Amino acid sequence: MAQTTRRNPGRPVYVVDGTRTPFLKARGKPGPFKAVDLAVAAGRPLLLRQPFEADRFDEVILGCVAPGPDEANIGRIAALRLGCGERVPAWTVQRNCASGMQALDAAFRNIADGRSDLVLAGGVESMSHSPVLLSDGMVAWLAEWQRARSPLARFRQLTRLRPRDLAPVIGLLRGLRDPVVGISMGQTAENLAHRFGLSREQMDAFAMRSHQRLAAAYEAGHLADEIAIAYARDGTHYERDDGLRADTDMAQLARLRPVFDKPFGTVTAGNSAQVTDGCAWLVLASEKAVKEHDLAVLGRIVDVEWAGLDPAQMGLGPVHATVPLLKRKRLSLDKIDYWEINEAFAAQVLACVEALKDERYCKESLGLGKAAGEIPIEHLNVDGGGISLGHPVGASGARIVLHLLHVLRRENARRGIASLCIGGGQGGAMLVENTATE
Q1: Which of 87, 291, 405, 414 is deepest in the core (most CB within 10 A)?
Q2: Res. 8 pLDDT band, cuts 50 70 90
Q3: Whole-angstrom Cα distance, residue 71 to residue 35?
């Protein structure tokens, strides 16, 4: 378990504003936006409403798992396209599903340490643009083809081409498989479902509730201040998360077949996060910058924790990150008003809830003397999550922090924790506060 003794975070760090694009479901072909296009679509309206020019940022930090071949250091490309200017440094971070939160953490640390005062940070992913690759055999064959000079040499090389060499490598599927333990992320969710005795009905009920809550949030106008309209090059505009299925029910979900553990598994496409394109940005500022630019404050980042665990149990990462974070801040679970745990899988979120209230797990795996406590379902992902609105892996860590701050402000609540599981066996958790309650 991660160490709980850390130096004081330093200067206070505020979130003054943020926005995101609608999250758009991948539908078997490249979507309307590349990753950098999404970053610009979310960033432009955000920067236009600020009382300072874009070149006043000290740095820009963007999380992204798999930028395209024309998007090397996508953070820098986005910063330049957003008008931040040549003198504003920009960089890209990658921590799988928590890349967006890692970007916020980097900004948080630099402001707390006094190295920066004003930072644009967030995350982006265009999963529909994940590459389709050539196999190693095909790459080797092409290399020999290039070396062949005479017609006879090329004919001989043609005879060596095998059908198996032509099989494409789907980059997205390879990226969702853990190369160390040799199983997919979905299979890690099946492990947790078995470990904590979670039923298919429980997972489907959680998934249905995610869609219902997101639909209710749209109906109540709760997302109006969070989402910026995205305009595609053909003039089409996107206003809402398009993976929402407001009319889904248990019967529809029950008809879906297991995806990762056929035929007897319980994890399906319906109770898993959607493969999605999207971006989320936040503006972080020091107290000095808040005063200098007369900025309204949405909330404050208090602290961040990262943890590692067995990759085959990676879905429990939020538990392993949250417990030491709470211990360091001398807070109990019931002192947290609202929670955002990224919905990679219904099984994974439900397993985290079960693990925290399981005395044996807390003693053996977390080093506690008793169970940590229980997260009230009514205060967890109150407006839906990755199952209903999607999980663009580089962006989700930033989105859940932004949304949690809006929830705290809306409910006049003080504290919240945003957390994610991370492929490869890690977890991240960020503690935020609503400064309006201080």
Answers
A1: 405
A2: low
A3: 8
Kindly state the tokens that stand for 343: 């919905």
Query: At which residue do the structure tokens 């209710």 appear?
Result: 216
Domains of the chain: residue spans and CATH: 183-222+303-433 (3.40.47.10)
CB contact set of 280 (below 8 Å; sequence gap of 6+): 18, 19, 20, 21, 42, 100, 122, 123, 124, 395, 396, 398, 399, 402
Q: Could you give the count of Cα atoms lying within 13 Å of 107 in the half-sphere of its Cβ?
A: 38
- Kindly give, in sequence order, each residue whose CB lies less than 8 Å from that of residue 255, ignoring residues fewer than 6 positions away: none
What is d(CA 255, CA 204) in angstroms, rounded to the nearest whole number? 11
Whether 128 contacts 26, CB under 8 Å = yes
Q: Is the dihedral of CA 377, 379, 381, 382 positive or negative?
A: positive
97 forms bridges with which residues in the sheet? 95
| pLDDT (0 to 100) of residue 130 | 86
| Residue spans of alpha helices (H) in 160-286 | 171-175, 185-195, 200-220, 250-254
Predicted TM-score (pTM) of the model is 0.94
Two tokens, residue 293: 């630019």
The average confidence (pLDDT) of the chain is 94
Q: For a pLDDT cut of 90, what percent of the chain falls above it?
A: 82
Q: Check pLDDT > 80 for residue 65.
A: yes
**Quick check: is 97 catalytic?**
yes
Alpha-carbon torsion (265, 267, 270, 274), positive or negative: negative
Q: Which of 137-151, 184-198, 317-331, 359-373 has the lowest mean pLDDT?
A: 137-151
Please tell me the distance from the alpha carbon of residue 8 to that of residue 231, in angstroms, as a whole number. Answer: 43
| Full DSSP string of 12-68 | -EEEEEEEEPPPEE--SS--S--HHHHHHHHHHHHHHTSSS-GGG-SEEEEE-SS--
- Which member of 129, 222, 391, 403 is catalytic? 391
Q: Which of 143, 163, 109, 178 is nearest to 317 (CA)?
A: 178
Identify the active-site residue in 97, 279, 352, 362.
Answer: 97
pLDDT of residue 1: 46
Q: How many C-beta neighbours within 10 Å does residue 25 have?
A: 18
Identify the active-site residue in 279, 352, 362, 421.
Answer: 421
How far apart CA 305 and CA 98 sit, in angstroms, is 12
